From TrEMBL:
Entry annotated with the keyword Oxidoreductase: yes
Ranges where the record places region Disordered: 178-202
InterPro entries, alphabetized: NAD(P)-bd_dom_sf (IPR036291), Sc_DH/Rdtase_CS (IPR020904), SDR_fam (IPR002347)
Entry EC no(s): 1.-.-.-
Family: Belongs to the short-chain dehydrogenases/reductases (SDR) family.
Name the UniProt record assigns to this protein: Putative oxidoreductase
Keyword terms: Oxidoreductase
Key word Oxidoreductase present: yes
Length: 253
């Protein structure tokens, strides 16, 4: 998803910096992205789960580019399992990946974003809006990211920094359906290893998600759920929790 977002921003004229832990993977992604002429892509290897690394990245961004207009926090990982089998260590791991990385990047890059009156877009999930079955600690982690995003948006209003959340359902990818097979053991129905833990929501094209991320950065959209028709169902489910449970069971069995 990160590389499709990078491609979309680059095609819209942004100078894009991609961050990841492996310099080799970043170089491969950069080469692929630059196979289309006119795209400006830079790489900065670093582990954004560590504040010192985020500070170093911020220093490099300032030194090499002088400004930052948008930050997209896209690190994250899903999970499979029953809540009553979720252990504390796994939960911490998921929170580190899905929440702490975004928080540390925001903290380290705040100064640059404040100077440009820029924007942050956090990549959440439908699992940050509803608590579907069989997703291990993913619901907890993405709900935390949802809360963090709104808190930052409110706290940074006066600083002129916009903070948005994009919450997509399953995104189409080649390994969808097999990525979490190892985590979905015998205690779960076979469908749980499928995207979204077996949801009937159709896979989204990553390009569609990326276009929305760009709109959030440019037009300051605030909170987008994809596919859009689910917003109404989620609002209804929040207002009428029994209906919400019924809808979730319908959509995931
Ligand atoms: N895929 C879906 O169907 C789906 C649906 C809804 C929401 N989402 C959300 O969309 C986001 C992207 O998902 P994805 O499927 O594209 O994930 P992915 O393929 O696993 O990619 C995650 C990326 O983050 C980088 N990364 C991981 N930990 C890092 C760290 N500590 N520091 C720096 N970089 C790190 C990885 O690169 P390195 O390993 O090289 O560091 C990789 O490039 C996630 O937040 C996910 O929850 C995904």
């Amino acid at each position: 998803m990160g590389s499709v977002i990078a491609e979309t921003f680059a095609d819209a004229g942004y100078q894009v910096i991609i961050v990841g832990r492996s310099a080799e993977r970043l170089d491969a992604a950069k080469q692929q992205l630059q196979s289309r002429p006119g795209r400006s892509i830079a790489t900065l290897p670093g582990d954004v789960g560590r504040r010192s690394e985020c500070d170093r990245i911020a220093t490099e961004v300032e030194r090499q580019f002088g400004r930052l207009d948008s930050l997209v926090n896209c690190v994250g990982a899903s999970d499979r399992g029953l809540a009553d089998e979720l252990d504390a260590e796994r939960l911490r791991e998921l929170i580190d990946q899905n929440v702490t990385t975004a928080l540390l990047c925001c903290q380290a890059l705040r100064g640059l974003l404040e100077r440009s009156g820029g924007s942050v877009v956090n990549i959440g999930s439908l699992a940050g809006k509803v608590g579907a079955r069989y997703l291990g600690g993913y619901n907890v982690a993405k709900h935390a990211l949802t809360g963090l995003t709104q808190q930052l948006r409110l706290e940074w209003r006066e600083r002129g920094i916009h903070v948005a959340l994009v919450s997509p359902g399953p995104i189409r990818r080649e390994d969808a359906g097999t990525r979490y097979r190892d985590r979905a053991d015998g205690s779960l129905p076979a469908s749980a290893s499928a995207p979204g833990g077996g949801t009937k929501v159709k896979g989204l094209a990553p390009q569609r998600v990326a276009r929305i991320v760009l709109q959030c950065a440019r037009r300051r959209r605030t909170d987008v759920i994809l596919p859009g028709y689910l917003r109404l169902l989620i609002v209804l489910g929040n207002a009428f929790p029994r209906l919400g449970d019924w809808l979730l069971i319908k959509f995931t069995s």
